[in-house]
């Protein structure tokens, strides 16, 4: 008799670096294996939908190449030569190396380095508890959100916005600076539902004809970094044609008369020359959003990828303030709710153990830090020991050649806690095997929605894998670091954090797995006042005074626009030597460097390519599938060309992030990206690069 498998359906939360933070229903087969993964139909934002990457998560969690034992390097750095070692020996070696670094140069010579390979608060941010308890170098987490957050908060004063479920009440949905078909499928589902149910018009603004643009009713194809010109021209038309909400402007904004006067010279003809759009397209967009008061502006992280992104975000965000869309259900704007949840992270991060004056190093500038750049080191000692969790900087960080050079230092000790043998893990002295999200307890907040969610352990961890929390606790014991969080389990930390944050005990949330934290309508729409002291939306932002969750290194804010405007100065403009603008947009089947080890994702993406307009390719002798070299002052990358008419002339798109070894010379796309700190609060402008392109023989 054949026994049927025992299938249980368990709740969880997707841990990956995506605004949707999907609530999940996971099939657990015989208590040990993942079956199908679905979006939770009980969750009002996830609404039963999940991306294809996560739906096939069994490929990832049961991958044969997953790390399952601690390893010690036995050959040259980067050679991939490792031997299996026990946990105690591995942790002892890490602790010895950290003590030696501290003895030679002080505690700031140790740099715990992390990011969002998991978005779980305990497993992502717990590394900071060790950092604070020991006085190790701090981290400015600039690599993703800085520019967009700064531009949004400069206008609203608070990092919150309209309930994204209100898209169901919208008659126009503007998707600007994000490609949700690739990166947050739930957003596209809500927009399409509004179109089907009430005839809502979907507008997409982007720099290439991606799947989101192809599903839009109005697709506005702009040159990279020119979003603010479109925004200003749209507001010009709205004022000119009597579509501005004068009452709202008077009650809720700081200087509407100054804005109107400023915009008189920013007409559609001016913007067309900058953006590449036709005057008629700009006029149509302006009339659509001006007349449709319940227009929902969904503003994405594409704004964070250009050096003028903060100013561009602020300009786009100003449109609903001019139209008065904020006062209407289904109208207004949304970027992130990351400022809404009020999570008390003292226990998770050890915020009560911080040491004033500890230097803060910019994570985006890890290449400069590790190669001894005095400015990047903030005048402090060299970094001689790294602990890395949840990130793969040798692949994903900008200025890749500097990053590689830094990791190759013989005097640098590196411990990497990882799920796979990534490029960064190959450069390590000690590699520790990490759990995945179904193998540990954690807590999540939905930056792109409004729920606090649980992700509890549903499977045993394979072999010798240990969680981030377990590793931090074990190192703390060896290093003499003290904090109450080191004596608690992840579940206990989640429970205590929920109660300290006003969400009640974990047990009360466990059955549902999430709680809706959405603010009331008046608060979400800023009808009780914007987040500035005067309660008004700021058309004239205080760029030097803007603060977000974590400030980065402050860029040259003195040159930023006084009022919404196209700010060209900081962009990596085309030059005769480097006549093309390159953007490294996200591939549909990868998420940063996650999923680029799974067979289906690899098969669907095939190999690294760069999109080039046929009219640009022809005079360069570049045909479909030809090998080409992209180059600038930072280095060169070899990959295949694909001819693609759906972008502006002079623009190149390389969807990423592929592993470095997917390129013939081992140099990944971030060889070409820069780590300079844009205004006002730093960041990493991954879509703002100038390059040359040339065909290779054969």
From TrEMBL:
Pfam families (UniProt xref): Molybdop_Fe4S4, Molybdopterin, Molydop_binding
Domain of life of the native organism: Bacteria
Domain 4Fe-4S Mo/W bis-MGD-type span(s) in chain numbering: 7-65
Keyword Iron-sulfur: yes
UniProtKB keywords: Iron, Iron-sulfur, Metal-binding
Keyword Ribosomal protein: no
GO terms of molecular function: iron-sulfur cluster binding; metal ion binding; molybdopterin cofactor binding; oxidoreductase activity
InterPro entries hit by this protein: Asp_de-COase-like_dom_sf, MoPterin_dinucl-bd_dom, Mopterin_OxRdtase, Mopterin_OxRdtase_4Fe-4S_dom, Prok_Mopterin_Oxidored, YoaE_C
Family: Belongs to the prokaryotic molybdopterin-containing oxidoreductase family.
Name this protein carries in UniProt: Molybdopterin oxidoreductase family protein
Species assigned in the record: Methylobacterium oryzihabitans
